[in-house]
TrEMBL record:
Key word Transferase present: yes
Any one GO molecular-function label of the UniProt entry: acetolactate synthase regulator activity
Matches recorded under PROSITE patterns: ACT
A cellular-component GO term for this protein: cytosol
Broadest EC class assigned to this enzyme: transferase
The protein's name: Acetolactate synthase small subunit
Keywords: Amino-acid biosynthesis, Branched-chain amino acid biosynthesis, Transferase
Native source species: Palleronia pontilimi
Length: 185
């Protein structure tokens, strides 16, 4: 496994990193960026992506240290290995950024997402929606005579699979939080 930890523009690469940095293969990476919790920081980080045409698949932000005034931005993005390295280097140069961690290459990590699904239907479709929710360990957080609202947590792939099953059963609305991730161990 490769380890990469960038602090204020420095980087360390493992000799075991066998990825070709010149490869054209598009990879999905989860980045954890520790920043000062102050006005405009998120706009600067997002501006880096939009200004260079990089896509953000998921974005979550929350304060992690109230007394130290720091926040954690978790970004899921895609690109070639060279593009990912460029993103990490450019993030490390932004002044309010303290650390950039590429959870994808640093080792095992845990990714979770929360989603709410409103499923409208009656009869057999309503019963099937409840049965599928039970299989996926989704909770009913609201119920009317016409609809259910389910809450589900899990990997983005689990959320996608649940959405795919709910669509033919009357999925009418969905809200997702985006990925929250931590390195394991």
């Amino acid at each position: 496994m490769s380890t990469l930890k960038i602090k204020k523009g420095t980087s360390k690469h493992s000799a075991y990193d066998l990825r070709d940095p010149h490869s054209n293969v598009i990879e999905r990476h989860t980045l954890a960026v520790i920043v000062d919790n102050e006005a405009g920081v998120l706009a600067r980080v997002i501006g880096l992506f939009s200004g260079r045409g990089y896509n953000i698949e998921s974005l979550t932000v929350a304060e992690i240290d109230h007394t130290g005034h720091t926040s954690r931005i978790t970004i899921v993005t895609t690109g070639t290995p060279a593009v990912i390295e460029q993103i990490k280097a450019q993030l490390g140069r932004i002044v309010p950024v303290h650390e950039v961690h590429d959870l994808t290459v640093e080792g095992a990590s845990v990714e979770r997402e929360l989603a709410l699904f409103k499923v409208t239907g009656s009869g057999d479709k309503r019963v099937e929606a409840l049965r599928m929710a039970d299989v996926f360990r989704a909770s009913v957080v609201d119920s009317t005579l016409e609809s259910f609202t389910f809450e589900i947590t899990g990997s983005p792939e689990k959320i996608d699979a649940f959405a795919d099953l709910m669509r033919p059963l009357g999925l009418s609305e969905m809200a997702r939080t985006g990925v929250a991730a931590l390195a394991r161990g």
